[in-house]
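Human:
Take a look at this sequence-structure pair and walk me through the tokens.
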Amino acid sequence: MFTQKKEKFYRCKTCGFEFSNLDVERVCSNCFACTGCEVYTCPSCASEVVVKPMKKMQP
């Protein structure tokens, strides 16, 4: 059973463009060091839009 993503809107700090999380792909895609970060690429200027930064890993 799949759950539908909730739509959220974000604004790029570089160019001010507003976009939906449903319209773009996340840059981060559950890598080996997954800490729950959420990063997108602005569709207007290609800057990174960091919603939730990567947490520092504990040694």
